[in-house]
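Hi there,

I know you've been waiting on this one. I reran it after we fixed the sequence typo, so this is the corrected version. Both the input and the resulting structure follow.
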Amino acid sequence: MIFGICTNMNARSAADIGIDQASYAQKIGLDYIELAADRMMKYDDARFENFKKEAAESPLPCLACNSLVDPSIKLAGREYNRGTFENYITTAMFRIASIGAKKVVFGSAKARSIPSYLSAEEGKAHIIERIKFIAEAAAQHGIEVEIEHLNRTECNCITTFEESVSIAKQLNLPNLKSIFDYYHFAVGGENEALIRQNEAWIGHIHFACTMERRMPDLHEAKKLEPVLNILRDCSYNGSFSLEAYFPNCEMDNTYYKTPIAYMRDILNGEKQ
């Protein structure tokens, strides 16, 4: 597997895309960065052209993006505007592809939340229609879409790994899979047997401790070894992003090299 960091978790502000974290990520042994698409979409065309140059000169490539849909764009109910949504997604996929990213995570909790006047079934049907459009738009740029399961405290739609896999199976598109997000999976109390049962549908991984959603230290990484062993034994061998807070960590600190190396050894079969 290759290891990356979701830069939005440790960005300086809600507007900061965090590309400057690439140098730090490289120092602690990571292979790529994962950037927030919704922040990138706030750039006008001139600013985005400058950003493309920053991305091209980054010491680590951006291989994935997350936070696809801006919270102001609603995907279900009366607030949904087809033209606004489709124009946004079309532009987003062009921009994601132009910085070299090959995967995009569809989490977007606020955008996809189902309004109270809709039934859960009707709202979910709306979201599935939007996912289909997203995947088809992404396919035109060779991008794979990962449906993110969120926990129930953050969203009221697609709240389990099992459910995100089910939607991917239902739509059955070649570039549509589910993410495996350990934080949401553990918070939701899902059975670890589901990982092996659905391994063919995992297209990307997000990982963080359930405690404060932070990066595990070495002691915590060792406690997580059972789930890491399950992931190691699966057929999936792709990208593994640390979607985690790095508390009390200066940008030139190497504190996290050891747990990252430990997890890498397990997931790549070098530690049995």
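Quick highlight: The chain is about 40% helix and 15% strand.

Best,
R. S.
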